[in-house]
Amino acid sequence: MTVAADTRTTAANKSFDLGPAAELVSKEEGHRQPLAPEFVCLEDFSPLEVAYDFGRVRREDIEAGPRSIWRYKHLLPVPSNVEEYPNTDPGCTKLVRADNLAKALGVKRIWIKDDTGNPTHSFKDRVVAVALAAAREFGFKVLACPSTGNLANAVASAAARAGWDSVVLVPSSLERAKVLMTAVYDGSLISVDGNYDDVNRLATELAGEHEDWAFVNVNVRPYYSEGSKTLGFEVAEQLGWRLPEQIVVPIASGSQLTKVDKSFRELGEVGLVEPSPYRIFGAQASGCSPVASAFKEDHDTVQPVRPDTIARSLAIGAPADGPYVLDSVRRTNGAVEDVTDAEVVEGIRLLARTEGIFAETAGGVTVATTKKLIDNGQLDPDSETVLLITGDGLKTLDAVQDHVGPKATVAPNTEAVDSALGL
Amino acid sequence: MTVAADTRTTAANKSFDLGPAAELVSKEEGHRQPLAPEFVCLEDFSPLEVAYDFGRVRREDIEAGPRSIWRYKHLLPVPSNVEEYPNTDPGCTKLVRADNLAKALGVKRIWIKDDTGNPTHSFKDRVVAVALAAAREFGFKVLACPSTGNLANAVASAAARAGWDSVVLVPSSLERAKVLMTAVYDGSLISVDGNYDDVNRLATELAGEHEDWAFVNVNVRPYYSEGSKTLGFEVAEQLGWRLPEQIVVPIASGSQLTKVDKSFRELGEVGLVEPSPYRIFGAQASGCSPVASAFKEDHDTVQPVRPDTIARSLAIGAPADGPYVLDSVRRTNGAVEDVTDAEVVEGIRLLARTEGIFAETAGGVTVATTKKLIDNGQLDPDSETVLLITGDGLKTLDAVQDHVGPKATVAPNTEAVDSALGL
Known about the structure:
Two copies of one chain form a homodimer. Chain A is of the alpha/beta class and 423 residues long. Chain A has a domain at 94-121 and 225-399: Rossmann fold. Helices cover 37% and strands 16% of the residues of chain A. Chain A contains 15 helices and 14 strands. In chain A, the strands form three sheets. The first copy, chain A, has a six-stranded mixed sheet with strand order 4-5-13-10-11-12, sandwiched between helices. In chain A, strands 8-7-6-9 form a four-stranded parallel sheet, with helices on both faces. In chain A, helix 3 (99-105) crosses helix 13 and helix 13 crosses helix 14 (361-375). The longest helix of chain A is centred in the N-terminal third of the chain and has 15 residues, at 124-138. The radius of gyration of chain A is 21 Å and the shape is globular. The termini of chain A are far apart. The interface between A and B is large, with 80 and 80 residues.
């Protein structure tokens, strides 16, 4: 407990090496404060975000960097020697040209950013890796989180590799695959009798009591969330240092979408790309679509809902960054749309059969929403579109189990096989 | 059926573009024949292997190539424009310096080649990608296989991306995760009443009847199996263009181990690395350890066994390449060892808690065998050792489910959490 207590009292005068990160700024009124493990501005009570003094950042330096998110360290709140410490080193996942899917959807060009290739098979490895790097600099020794799955896997794995203890809190209803994949790394996995909102509230209380615990998505959230920018950085670099014309991003808390937007703006600001126009689209499941509702009703605020969808990794009824998502989408001339659970399953299957990529339910939401946006004319079929596929189908098998299976079960002879295939 | 029938009749005079591949050579007596979709020499009945005319292959050309196995196309039996066709483009997975594991095992330096990062999360994506590329050149239109899991996933995924039909035969007892992950790609998955030996025999019969079906591990096996060389190529490149001193490889059919050996020799022959000495070690589960038995009893042949182990992806009782494994291991001064199912589980857990990498049972076999080889003095603790982790823990959750889980299930308050953690 002493370490971070020290940290907090000295935060104002100690200078941390978090690379280009300069200070924290509140999102509402722009109040500034020194870098520290804080997440809410005590003046306007809005979330704190990292502000930077970017030096000169050149394409050649990035291209010569490691094959991980650390190639972008000069654009992230991490120490300048970040790659020297054990971490999961995620990122540099594939950007797949999805011609079969584009044809099936009747559009010109689709790219799939396939984050199933990360160490624990979701984009959460990106944000956790950045959180771990910042937490190490702040002097924390325990990595913690409340989670419904992908984040639990990523935190437990990263802590193991770093040689840290982890404390992961999950709702007791969590699926078997996610429980086992968290527990195997041998941190402290605690099952909590309650839903995700209960677990989240508990985590905030614990963060207040245990000041040596870095709750990645609570007290080090400003650093953690910047990790999502690497999705945008990679897309731009993989397209040959240019911004895509349209991008479809799933919405849970909404953080990822706003950070992809931020990444595109920063790339333009530091001169790594031409600041060409782009449109950002948000994707939700209808069973948890508060941001889509606000967008369609032209509201500036987001009314919380009680989630009821198979897309559990997106099931945040009160998305913290909802209003900022609305800002990003409206500013870029995008839209937010939502799809039914049946459409989510069809989205998973469409991506699998056209491109051989097996996404979790969140990916199904993204694919199905893209189809809907094309069908209703909001997404331009003649512009290229990037889809963020942020998690792996192996973690949400329940979603497809009643829909796919063997064509037939047959006796072990060739006639039986031919007959089953209608030959 | 017409396509491959054409292929076969013209194989002798048609010249296929399979890059540096020159002809097929029988492993026993060295009989030569033109490149064709054949897998057994009709003169000595031994397996056929690809022989090459390597041109000049330079490090710079490889380093400037794509971030996939196609960077090594000048060392593989694939068309020179292979990267222009849709494929899963696997490879370039991480080589992780595993200092925590090395410390736990009391050795100087361990590297983990982590093939869970491949598109369907196993090394099978490598061999299937090469098989698909060769099959396309031979004029096939259907990708097929018998499989117990990882191969089924890889074939169904690659066929979907290529726009091909697939026929995947699996034993009806196959685990849910592997069935669903194969079926989702929407090829023809056929469940067969029988064990893997029955399914394998059926596949060989079907390959004879359906000449337009490329059974990746039957009629195009000589090309398919060369894909495993890319594991060795990548390890050498990632070490800075040098061979490791020791490498531990799991044994199923034994093909992978012999191809890693071949890859190291080829790298030396074409001058990409110094031909420094290396030792190859084989890892088996005791419940299916025919090669380990033959090694320990100093036999040249391998006596088939009936498999009984949780390491199902290694459960081949009559390993086709068993004798060649013995050759490689003995020639390089290595060894073959086997471990119990309890040790396999402990191997999975040891890797997860030290390095944050969740391997399938085959990875547990590799880690546990490494520990045993160190303990019994066969593996030199002062030399560096590479471990091949070839598949993903999410596909074999059954192996760990009775061994790991939440520390406690508690009420949603901080006292309950602190109490569960002993604080």
